[in-house]
């Protein structure tokens, strides 16, 4: 449990950055994911006498990214259905989860392909778009994890 | 074709080329792990810049996929995004400058011979300070003190990118170094 705890807190940080109106701070963009990854790594390193390997740190960052993608997706689906509110309270892509389930209900099983969007623009379909979120979140969470690992690097001044 | 408005295309190209050409010459004297690590870091972070730059150069379907993928991590407002031939890149000015900062940080890491002047205590403060100009630039615009520009967004994003990139590149270099060490230990232990 103690190993999962930092990941949960990292996901919580991503959630905070995803909520209105914080996400409207447009200088943030991917910062929420990166900070979430860093947060997970910092907490893990504190449990290990401030030492952490880069690969381990990146793995934690990736977990934070992937879990946050799943949590955001599920939260969006729940919020959308509860409040019939397509632009749900959480971002990045609330309407995709909403329309994915709507599509299933309507018997539209080709939404992962090139079916037209039920809400806004076209593109690769809503399920396809949601599936983008997993690798993109993992990438930026991993970047956060790597940066987090460097926070615990030892000083090595310029030599030779 | 037009590029970001605060630097002419020629000035940008000359500045980038001189840095990229001169840096490897100087860095020939560096320890092999730093060279290798910074090359891996430069290649991987440049790939991110390449992906963000691709939309104007690919077909409509590919462009749509790229824009959708990056929409998860960027607002992509057309008025705040760089354009090439009238087609928006996949991210906004600030994000693009941040991504550009990563490979530049890889070159700096080589130039400074992998030096790490930060302690565990000071490193988070350095990262925080790097975000501060972007916060001020954005905050001033929001409360109406000034209106931020392409230049201010790119400069503040670039500061953030180079600072975060230096930490990222150091981690990638460490990872490459650790892999080499564990690989050579495995070879030694094998009879």
Structural overview:
The complex is a heterodimer of chains A (160) and B (191). With 160 residues, chain A is mainly α. Helices cover 61% and strands 0% of the residues of chain A. Chain A has helices at 5-18, 31-47, 54-83, 94-105, 126-150. In chain A, helix 1 (5-18) runs antiparallel to helix 2 (31-47), helix 2 (31-47) packs across helix 5 and helix 4 packs antiparallel against helix 5. The relative contact order of chain A is 0.18. Chain B is mainly alpha-helical. Chain B has one domain. In chain B, 70% of the residues lie in helices and 2% in strands. The longest helix of chain B has 40 residues, at 150-189. Mean pLDDT of chain B is 82; it is low at 1-5. The A-B interface holds A 25-27, 29-31, 33-34, 50, 53-55, 57-58, 92-93, 122-124, 128-129, 132-133, 136-137, 140, 143, 146-147, 149-160 and B 64-65, 67-75, 77, 80, 91-92, 94-95, 98, 112-120, 123-124, 127, 131, 134-135, 137-138, 156-157, 164, 167-168, 170-172, 174-175, 178.
Layout: helices, strands, pairs:
The complex is a heterodimer of chains A (160) and B (191).
Chain A: H1 5-18, H2 31-47, H3 54-83, H4 94-105, H5 126-150
Chain B: H1 9-26, H2 32-53, H3 60-71, E1 83-84, E2 87-88, H4 93-111, H5 122-143, H6 150-189
Antiparallel strand pairs in B: 1-2
What's the total number of strands of chain A? 0
Give the integer mean of the pLDDT values of chain B.
Answer: 82
Number of separate strands of chain B: 2
Nearest-integer average pLDDT of chain A:
73
Alpha-carbon distance between the two ends of chain A? 46 Å
Percentage of residues in DSSP E strands of chain B: under 5%
**How does the helix and strand content of chain B classify structurally?**
mainly alpha
- Number of separate structural domains of chain A: 1
Most strands sheet of chain A: none
Strand content of chain A: under 5%
Radius of gyration of chain A: 18 Å
Widest sheet: strand ordering of chain B: 1-2
Distance between the first and last residues' Cα of chain B: 61 Å
Q: Count of helical segments of chain B?
A: 6
Considering DSSP H and I runs of 4 or more, what fraction of the residues of chain A is helical? 55-70%
Radius of gyration of chain B: 19 Å
* Uncertain segments of chain B: 1-5
Order of helices and strands of chain B: HHHEEHHH
Helix content of chain B: 55-70%
């Amino acid at each position: 449990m103690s190993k999962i705890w930092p990941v949960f807190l990292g996901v919580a940080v991503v959630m905070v950055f995803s909520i209105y109106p914080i996400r409207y701070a447009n200088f943030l963009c991917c910062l929420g994911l990166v900070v979430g990854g860093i947060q997970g790594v910092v907490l893990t390193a504190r449990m290990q006498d401030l030492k952490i390997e880069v690969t381990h740190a990146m793995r934690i960052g990736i977990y934070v990214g992937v879990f946050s993608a799943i949590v955001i997706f599920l939260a969006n689906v729940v919020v959308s259905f509860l409040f019939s509110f397509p632009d749900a309270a959480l971002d990045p892509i609330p309407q995709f989860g909403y329309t994915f389930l709507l599509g299933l209900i309507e018997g539209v099983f080709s939404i992962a392909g090139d079916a037209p969007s039920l809400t806004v623009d076209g593109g690769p379909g809503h399920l396809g778009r949601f599936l983008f979120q997993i690798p993109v979140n993992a990438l930026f969470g991993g970047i956060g994890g790597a940066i987090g690992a460097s926070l615990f690097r030892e000083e090595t001044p310029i030599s030779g | 074709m037009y590029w970001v408005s605060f630097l002419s295309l020629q000035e940008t190209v000359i500045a980038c080329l001189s840095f990229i050409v001169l840096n490897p010459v100087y860095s020939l004297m560096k320890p092999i792990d730093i060279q290798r690590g910074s090359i891996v870091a430069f290649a991987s972070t440049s790939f991110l810049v390449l992906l963000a730059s691709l939309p104007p150069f690919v077909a409509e379907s590919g462009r749509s996929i790229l824009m959708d993928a990056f929409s998860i991590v960027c607002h992509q407002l057309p008025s705040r995004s760089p354009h090439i031939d009238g087609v928006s890149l996949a991210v906004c000015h600030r994000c693009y400058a941040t991504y550009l900062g990563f490979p530049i940080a890889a070159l700096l890491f080589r130039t400074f011979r992998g030096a790490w002047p930060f302690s565990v205590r000071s490193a988070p403060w350095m990262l925080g300070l790097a975000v501060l100009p972007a916060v001020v630039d954005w905050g001033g615009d929001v409360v109406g003190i000034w209106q931020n520009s392409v230049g201010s967004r790119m400069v503040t994003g670039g500061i953030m990118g180079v600072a975060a990139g230096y930490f990222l590149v150091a981690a990638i270099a460490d990872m490459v170094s650790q892999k080499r060490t564990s690989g050579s230990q495995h070879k030694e232990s094998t009879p």
